Structure formats: structure tokens, C-alpha cells
């Protein structure tokens, strides 16, 4: 089975050495994502705007992995430091997932990496079983058949 990884090139990924998203078979996991531009600067001033930006980044990562985007998300995990984000987050979620949101876990934390980020979201998705198109590599020790 192949593993495919994509990066967005943001400083966080480079500094901490992780991939934006990883696909193995049909399963895709998108790392915790904040509302930032390519240089790592915060985007959006409120929870609604940040949620929209984060979900856009997650959708872009899924497309790069060969998926269709947010329609394939089955679970979201949300980290937030201030409960005041709830209304803006809920409104953005309803707009992005009008047919109903995926499974969701929300966890209040002491702080995020920078106070300008109001929330962080990670996602799991089940992508179509099409062959991987980008940066495939064999995973060491994984010689069994699909």
C-alpha cells in the first residue's frame, strides 16, 4: 500500500517537520490547521473568518492528495482556547457543510501556538480509491499486498 504526503510550505511544517496531510489507501489525515497565509501570518480576525480559511486549507490538502475536497471529510477535531468562538465556528461549519457536518470533537485548550489563532482544526477523510497521483512512496516494512 502506498503513502502520499503533501505539504503547504508554511513555516510551521518546516520548523516541526510534519506533513500538512497524509494519505494511505483511501484514508487521509490532515494535520492541525490554523488560519494562516503561506508565510505563517494569521488570517481573519474572527472565528467565522478563521474557520472558513482553515476549512479551505483542509479542502486544498485533500485535493492535492487526489481527493475531491471537503465532501470526503468524516471527522473534524477542533482545538480552541476561548469558548467565544462557538457562534462564528458554528455559522461557518453550517455554510461549508450544508447537508450536515461530519463527526466532530471540540476540545478547549489553555492556548494555541499564537494568540492571534482562535482555533485549530484537523480532519480525517475517506477518499475515492483511485490510484495516488502525487509523491507516492513505499512505506518501509509494509510489503503485504493491498
Total number of beta strands: 7
CATH architecture classification: 2-Layer Sandwich
**Structural class given helices, strands, pairing?**
alpha+beta
Name the CATH class: Alpha Beta
Q: Specify the number of helices.
A: 3
Q: Main β-sheet, in a few words?
A: 7 strands, mixed
Classify the fold: give the CATH topology.
Answer: 60s Ribosomal Protein L30, Chain: A
- Helix and strand run: EHEEHEHEEE
Total separate domains: 1
Outline the low-pLDDT stretches.
Answer: 132-146
Strand content: 25-35%
Helix percent band: 10-25%
Compute the average pLDDT. 88
State Rg.
16 Å
Spatial gap, N to C terminus: 6 Å
Query: How would you sum up the global shape?
Result: globular
Q: Which strand order do you get reading across the main beta sheet?
A: 5-4-6-3-2-1-7
Task: State the fourth-level CATH superfamily.
Answer: RutC-like
Amino acid at each position: 500500500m502506498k503513502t502520499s504526503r503533501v505539504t503547504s510550505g508554511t513555516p510551521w511544517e518546516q520548523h516541526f517537520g510534519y506533513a500538512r496531510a497524509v494519505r494511505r489507501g483511501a484514508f487521509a489525515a490532515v494535520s492541525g490547521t490554523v488560519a494562516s497565509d503561506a508565510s505563517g501570518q494569521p488570517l481573519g480576525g474572527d472565528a467565522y473568518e478563521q474557520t472558513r480559511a482553515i476549512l479551505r486549507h483542509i479542502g486544498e490538502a485533500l485535493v492535492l492528495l487526489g481527493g475531491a475536497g471537503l465532501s470526503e471529510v468524516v471527522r473534524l477535531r477542533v482545538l480552541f482556547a476561548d469558548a467565544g468562538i462557538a457562534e462564528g465556528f458554528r455559522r461557518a461549519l453550517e455554510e461549508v457543510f450544508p447537508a450536515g457536518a461530519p463527526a466532530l470533537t471540540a476540545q478547549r485548550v489553555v492556548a494555541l501556538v499564537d494568540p492571534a489563532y482562535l482555533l485549530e482544526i484537523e480532519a480525517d477523510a475517506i477518499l475515492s480509491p483511485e490510484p495516488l497521483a502525487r509523491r507516492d512512496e513505499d512505506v518501509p516494512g509494509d510489503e503485504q499486498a493491498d
